[in-house]
Amino acid sequence: MAQTFDICIRGAGIVGRTLALLLARERLRVALVASPTPPAGHHDVRAYALNAASRQLLDSLRSWPDAQHATAVRHMEVHGDLDGNVHFDAQAQDVDALAWIVDVPALETRLGEAVRYQPLVEVVDAPVAAPLTAVCEGRASRTRAEFGVEFSVVPYGQHAIATRLHCELPHGESARQWLAPEGILALLPLDGPQGQTVAVVWSIDQENVDTWMNASPEAFTQRLEDISQGALGRLTLASERLNWPLQQAMADRWSGASPDGRSWVLVGDAAHNVHPLAGQGLNLGLGDAQALARVLQQRDAWRSTGDNRLLRRYERERKAALAPMGLAMDGLQQLFTRREAPLQALRNWGMKGFEHSGPIKNWMARQAMGLGA
Prior knowledge:
Blueprint: E1 7-10, H1 14-25, E2 30-33, E3 47-50, H2 52-60, E4 70-73, E5 75-79, E6 85-89, E7 99-103, H3 104-116, E8 121-124, E9 132-135, H4 142-146, E10 151-167, E11 174-180, E12 183-190, E13 197-205, H5 209-214, H6 217-227, E14 235-237, E15 242-251, E16 255-257, E17 263-266, E18 272-273, H7 281-297, H8 308-335, H9 341-355, H10 359-368
């Protein structure tokens, strides 16, 4: 007898695998459509900043990477282009860490192992029939387009360059960020407490991308040393460089019915994109997966997983959660790409005020950590 499924998940990345495991835990039968295999020799240099809520979720699925691949952020420094600075400290927030910087390949491996040992998840090569299709294919989703969903994209005119650096000095479990009109540079700690490697995310104007992607390793690292004001000493390129365009985007519909009458729902980057300056992209995607799994788990026994009333409930909840984060990231991106002297002075004055704002600063920190109030 042919296998029947309660849900088909298109996209077996981090969000897709997490959703599959959450649904299987609720005794739902899941078909997980395998993602294309990366080309031979490809090394993923990305790293994600995951907050406490995401860690708790992945821990519950036994998919959190080991300490070598999930470095705690005990401190965070944000530097403006004049004298504005903001500092966050885990101890001041009464938490073990503000976030964790997680190697993408290590996290994908742990999730892949968990999927392999979950009997209610079957990895398939092509989409199969199910009452509900969850689209977790990322920002360039083909399925979203097939379902006729409008994906409103606002390009930022910037690209992110990602790579890894070896540093002369230990990072001290500190994440560091420099906000300037030239671009936003983040150096994120890797390899545990005594590590001397950082993940780089450098957001720059698209007309400068080819220059810095093709620059010699020495010229590239010298520029990053200059921007970071030598905070980590001499820098050495430790991997290839990757880049991708930055955008804010939102699907007009996150759920609906396909031409054959079955239901679909968008999850993660297939539904929304935000600027990476606060490192919240994957946290939002994992929040989507958790919310969808909860809505399906709480449904009445007689309701199908494809019940549109349930899916609209998920859509309303997640759009409400995304709205303030999207507005904040877009506002900060717009503010720190302007070069006018009055705005430069205003934003640095604002950073200094925020640093001493007490309850407001603490509230923002806990929101970013996924801890709410």
